[in-house]
Amino acid sequence: MITAADLARLTNTTHGDYKRTVELYEKYKSWVTGDGLDAQLQQIVQREDEAAFAQRKRLTAHIIPSAVSRAKSVFQKGLRSNAINLYYSHDATGKVDDLKKVLSEFYSMSDERAYLDEFIADMTFIDPNGWLIVDTFGTDGRDYAKTFPTIVYSPDALNYQFTNGILDWLLIRKPMTYTGTDGNLKQSYRYTLYGTDGAIVAVPIADDSILRLMKEQHTIYEFNGQQYFQINDREVFYVMETFYKLTAPVACRWGYLHDALTDHRTFVSVLEGARPYFDKALKAVSEFDLGTTLHAFPQKIQYAPRCTAQGCVNGVLTTTGGKCPTCGGTGYMSAHTSGQDIITLGLPRDPAEAFNLGNFVSYVQLPIDVLNFQNEHVNRLSIEIQKSIFNSDIFTRAEVTTTATEKTIELQSVYDTLYSFAKQYATMWKYIVWQTAEYMGVSEGLNVIAHVKQDFKLKTYDEVLSDLQAAKTAGAGMAIIDGLEADAASVLYKDTPELMKKYSVMAYFDPYRGKTEQERMNINSSLPMDNYSRVLYTFYGQIFTDIEIEIGADVFYNSATRKQRDIIREYVERYTAMMTVPDIDFTTDTTE
């Protein structure tokens, strides 16, 4: 159990890998955002003076953030597939609905999955050693406690402790300001020690009377029933405690690729494998931009008449010694200054006085061979960055040169990269759901199961249809064909999840699922008119339309499977009643 004394003592410590995690955070952040790349460039280019390097920074347009953004878009596209699913149930009726309702307002009036979709790619790229804490506003006893996310970046995660791979506690530090005894704002920190049994917070206060009573730093003192400690002989911190009981660790790290340099105690970004190419691109792009800006432009050499202003000698006025206003101090008459100007020469009276205009101006031929090499080098580095991240060049090369077999193999390499990312997504998702249930007091009886597929459906709709047609032509089993049809639907409805949910429900309740069209017709015609499966199949589309109109699509498609089955059964019975043929006694003679 953590105590206030633990917090006071730990504020003067950091974990053993703190320096490493902060350095990685700053490096990765510069790669993703571009902020800090100039400082890394200066470490490479050290012979330039301050003015020359300032010009280099102005002229360099870094490509690293663009390369990272391209890679990140693939990860985000994987999130939009149906490869990651979380299923949870509860022994008590209605608790799942209560949990979903609380989670629907987890972040910015959106649910927990919308939150992860927005943040997980950035966090795993920028700060894999950062933490996610699911915190709570508490409850007034009438409603369930609501939860919200708190991100802790590596520089703020001062210390933590694991036991057999399970987090015991986490100490974080956040910058804050407070008003000192002199009335001026002071910069300080807020410390929070999180454990599974509570959280302890320390905030700075302005109270010199308490400070004078303290003798040792990082030691708890109690005055008037309140706890305090001091730091740096000048700051007093007031301690507040909050108690709760959690059955799982209070925080979860974003990263999933272990750092071999720290013996797997910490994590690295998925970008780490591209580090050599990022370093090369930093210098190569800068040199290319300097060359194209400062050297690769038309250089013109021309004759120009000398300035004819009175008293001008090489641009200096003999009368005052100042700069000639006519020529601006150049000593020459103004010539061609932009693409819109024309140099006009007077037509000589005597043709013998004319001269060849080709001798009047000359252009220097541009030495672009080096620039072409630099451009090709930069393009190659861009390709190598993507290959090193995905172990594949499927997103970089022209697909006309790629066979179907090669493309499948390359796509599997991409899926392998995304699979580890998706598993971490599922871990974070489970953590959010479980911690929310803990704060709500409904975790007992809760079952949470994550399912991550290895196929992220990155194929296009036409490609999936081609696979489906090939499977049918080859006589593949209906299980395979059903799977390919589901893949086609997931691609077709990837931007309309409500339609994908409708497709999934309708496919699930299809009475002849897995049968060919001919088999469906044969089975249906052999059944009695009032058979449940025959009625459902015959009026399948109309039944679902009636349900959507009368019950509501959102209500029905978001209901539990058992409830959906009961609703469909009710509507099938309606149609069955309409199809009932009255009994007729053919033995009675009705003729007169």
3D structure, described in words:
The protein is of the alpha+beta class and 592 residues long. The protein has helices spanning 4-10, 18-33, 37-44, 50-59, 64-79, 95-103, 112-126, 208-211, 275-294, 369-390, 404-440, 461-473, 478-492, 497-508, 517-526, 532-538, 540-557, 561-579; strands spanning 84-90, 131-138, 146-152, 157-163, 166-179, 185-195, 198-205, 221-223, 226-231, 235-243, 251-253, 257-258, 267-268, 299-302, 312-313, 316-317, 361-364, 446-452. The strands form 6 sheets. It has a 7-stranded antiparallel beta sheet with strand order 4-5-6-7-10-9-8. Strands 3-2-11 form a 3-stranded antiparallel beta sheet. A hairpin with a 2-residue loop joins strand 15 and strand 16. Helix 7 crosses helix 11 (404-440). The longest helix is centred in the C-terminal third of the chain and has 37 residues, at 404-440.
List keywords for this structure.
flat; alpha+beta; 592 residues; 44% helix; 7-stranded antiparallel β-sheet; 18 helices; single chain
Strand content: 15-25%
Beta strand count:
18
Structural class computed from helices and strand pairing: alpha+beta
Report the radius of gyration as a whole number of Å. 37 Å
Mean pLDDT: 84
In short:
With 592 residues, the chain is an alpha+beta fold.
What's the layout of helices and strands?
Elements: H1 4-10, H2 18-33, H3 37-44, H4 50-59, H5 64-79, E1 84-90, H6 95-103, H7 112-126, E2 131-138, E3 146-152, E4 157-163, E5 166-179, E6 185-195, E7 198-205, H8 208-211, E8 221-223, E9 226-231, E10 235-243, E11 251-253, E12 257-258, E13 267-268, H9 275-294, E14 299-302, E15 312-313, E16 316-317, E17 361-364, H10 369-390, H11 404-440, E18 446-452, H12 461-473, H13 478-492, H14 497-508, H15 517-526, H16 532-538, H17 540-557, H18 561-579
Helix pairs in contact: 2-5, 5-7, 5-10, 7-11, 9-10, 12-13, 14-17, 17-18
